[in-house]
């Protein structure tokens, strides 16, 4: 079950929230999860109930129920490792329901209620995709067909697609909307072939007013699915039904995609989403904090926005981590606390270490003046610290081998030799191993003294 959860949220979120959860088994038909405090309990209810129910459903539960219990303090250690044991009592398995049943209600359920236009922050990185999505939502089948949105993971493609779905279902409740990932489209097709239910399959996908197909790049190499999708596409297109596709790359870059599909994907409008600029990232964090009624100072949000630049899902995860960290440690929000909360994940970027810092730390660790380490002495007492210093500088800074060599008055091959020497000794020589570990932690700011 945790595997399912993990696939659907970011690593940061997973470690913040799910790693410490204890599985308390099943009581009165409901899976009981132990969480650390009432804050976490509230958080799970608000943010993860649906996901957990989906996870149980993916295991075959028909009517999954999840509840949360606050663990007694003794079991509550900060960032303790997760209990890896799987659920002992699973809800009873059921036969998987065919795709046909209560479609419209089901489809709406599949749209994430959070993914609306109102909750979508528009910035220079996504304004064209946003405008295009609004356009098709206003006049489906007329503005651009298909609408093809591409961009890296975590930048809002799924959010925008769902937003169109919500918008349409509010304004035209009678319209049929189908949101499907390319993976489930493929699986549905495979099942339909196996169960001899191709007619149902075709009816399902060809009778909709709006078809949203997510991550279409996964069509690559799947010939039968491409064939089937080609016919679905044509049927909808000819009837002026709206199609929206998302992908992590433009159609021309999807390898082994049939030419006739590629050209169809290019018939309408192709628009991309880029990584958000700093200001957009701050705005997204602000909106998130407000929605969750978290009163967090602007400068803390700014620090988070500086840390996470590429992926909005990770950005949201970082905010949650900071919130969890300060709540669990019972300290108010501050930049220092935020930096601390994120240091495990973002240390290498955040803490900029200079060669001189490393040398000083190494010197004080081995209790010897920095200049002696940089000097010409060749006894072991000096050579080991020198090699450790060169190794750590290489690891913790961006300096090249020749630059490090110059800093020590040596050439780059000496530095290379030092690095391979230390690498060799790691795990074997206790003094070297312990020194490297300790110094590395210290310099990445992972020590706890300033909390
Ligand atoms: P993708 O499908 O491109 O991988 P998602 O649509 O799943 O990305 O977005 C990842 C997360 O970031 C979601 O929680 C989504 O709500 C959020 N998000 C993405 N773009 C925005 C935006 N412009 N404003 C607010 N939240 C956003
Ligand atoms: Mg997506």
TrEMBL record:
Q: Where is this region: Domain I, interacts with DnaA modulators?
A: 1-77
Organism classification: Bacteria, Thermotogati, Deinococcota, Deinococci, Deinococcales
Q: Which HAMAP family match?
A: DnaA_bact
Question: What is the name attached to this protein's record?
Answer: Chromosomal replication initiator protein DnaA
Q: What does this protein do?
A: Plays an essential role in the initiation and regulation of chromosomal replication. ATP-DnaA binds to the origin of replication (oriC) to initiate formation of the DNA replication initiation complex once per cell cycle. Binds the DnaA box (a 9 base pair repeat at the origin) and separates the double-stranded (ds)DNA. Forms a right-handed helical filament on oriC DNA; dsDNA binds to the exterior of the filament while single-stranded (ss)DNA is stabiized in the filament's interior.
Q: Which InterPro entries does the record match to this protein?
A: AAA+_ATPase, Chromosome_initiator_DnaA, Chromosome_initiator_DnaA-like, Chromosome_initiator_DnaA_CS, DnaA_C, DnaA_dom, DnaA_N_dom, DnaA_N_sf
- Residue ranges, compositional bias (Pro residues): 83-96
Which residues are listed for ATP binding in this entry? 154, 156-158
Which branch of life, at top level? Bacteria
Q: Which residues form the Chromosomal replication initiator DnaA C-terminal domain?
A: 354-422
Organism of origin: Deinococcus radiopugnans ATCC 19172
Q: Which residues form the AAA+ ATPase domain?
A: 143-271
The entry sums up its family as follows: Belongs to the DnaA family.
> What keywords is this UniProt entry annotated with?
ATP-binding, Cytoplasm, DNA replication, DNA-binding, Lipid-binding, Nucleotide-binding
Which region ranges are annotated with the description Domain IV, binds dsDNA?
A: 327-451
Q: Enumerate the residue ranges of region (Disordered).
A: 79-106
Q: Where in the cell is it found?
A: Cytoplasm
């Amino acid at each position: 079950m945790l595997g399912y959860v993990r696939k659907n949220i970011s690593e940061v979120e997973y470690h913040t929230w799910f790693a410490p959860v204890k599985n308390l088994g099943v009581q009165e038909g409901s899976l009981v999860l132990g969480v650390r405090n009432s804050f976490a309990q509230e958080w799970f209810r608000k943010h993860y109930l649906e996901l957990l129910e989906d996870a149980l459903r993916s295991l075959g539960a028909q009517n999954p129920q999840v509840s949360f219990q606050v663990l007694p303090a003794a079991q509550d250690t900060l960032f303790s490792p997760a209990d890896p044991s799987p659920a002992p009592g699973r809800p009873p398995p059921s036969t998987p329901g065919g795709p046909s049943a209560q479609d419209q209600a089901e489809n709406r359920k599949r749209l994430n209620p959070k993914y609306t236009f109102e909750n979508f922050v528009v910035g220079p990185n996504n304004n064209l995709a946003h405008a295009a999505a609004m356009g098709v939502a206003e006049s489906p089948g007329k503005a651009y067909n298909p609408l093809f949105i591409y961009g890296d993971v975590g930048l809002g493609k799924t959010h925008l697609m769902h937003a169109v779905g919500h918008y349409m279902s509010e304004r035209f409740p009678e319209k049929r909307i189908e949101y499907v990932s390319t993976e489930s489209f493929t699986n549905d097709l495979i099942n339909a072939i196996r169960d001899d239910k191709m007619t149902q399959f075709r009816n399902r996908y060809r009778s909709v007013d709006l078809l949203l197909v997510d991550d279409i790049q996964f069509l690559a190499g799947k010939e039968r699915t491409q064939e089937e999708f080609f016919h679905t596409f044509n049927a909808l297109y000819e009837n002026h039904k709206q199609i929206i596709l998302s992908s992590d790359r433009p159609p021309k870059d999807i390898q082994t995609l049939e030419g006739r599909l590629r050209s169809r994907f290019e018939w309408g409008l192709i628009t991309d989403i880029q990584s958000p600029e700093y200001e957009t990232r701050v705005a997204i964090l602000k909106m998130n904090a407000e929605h969750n009624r978290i009163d967090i100072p602007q400068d803390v949000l700014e620090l988070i926005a500086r840390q996470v630049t590429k992926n909005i899902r990770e950005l949201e995860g970082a905010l949650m981590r900071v919130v969890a960290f300060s709540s669990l440690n019972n300290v108010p929000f501050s930049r220092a606390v935020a930096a601390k909360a994120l240091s495990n994940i973002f240390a290498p970027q955040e803490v900029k270490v200079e060669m001189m810092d490393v040398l000083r730390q190494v010197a004080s660790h081995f209790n010897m003046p920095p200049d002696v380490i940089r000097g010409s002495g060749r006894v072991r007492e000096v050579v080991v610290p020198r090699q450790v210093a060169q190794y750590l500088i290489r690891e913790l800074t961006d300096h090249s081998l020749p630059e490090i060599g110059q800093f020590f008055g040596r050439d780059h091959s000496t530095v290379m030799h030092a690095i391979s020497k230390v690498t060799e000794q790691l795990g074997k020589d206790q003094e070297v191993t312990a020194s490297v570990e300790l110094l590395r932690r210290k310099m990445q700011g992972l020590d706890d003294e300033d909390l």
